[in-house]
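Please, structure for the following, as tokens.
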Amino acid sequence: MAILNGLAFLITLAVGVVVWAMYTFEPGLLLGTPWGRVHVALLLAGAFLLGGAMMGMYVLAGWVTCRTRLSRYGRELRQARGELDRLKKQQIQEVPVIPDRAEPG
């Protein structure tokens, strides 16, 4: 997990450096958008943030799905254990008595 965290940090740092370099060294990179003229570096940063937000949504959805499945499996396991305990209580186990030995106890 530490490797993935480090990789995510490096990718974010690289995108930040590229955005800063484009904004600083190429001030004329403007694109027309419905919101007016916007620098390409800002569009790149916005696209990266939007992708990160979408990835976060997928992770959140996966986490919620996993928690739901785990709680369902836990509930089924508790029900099965309860049924097993009820069956154990209903079925009386007889201790076999060997005729040539004394009874235990």
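Strands lie at 30-33, 36-39. The longest helix spans residues 40-90.
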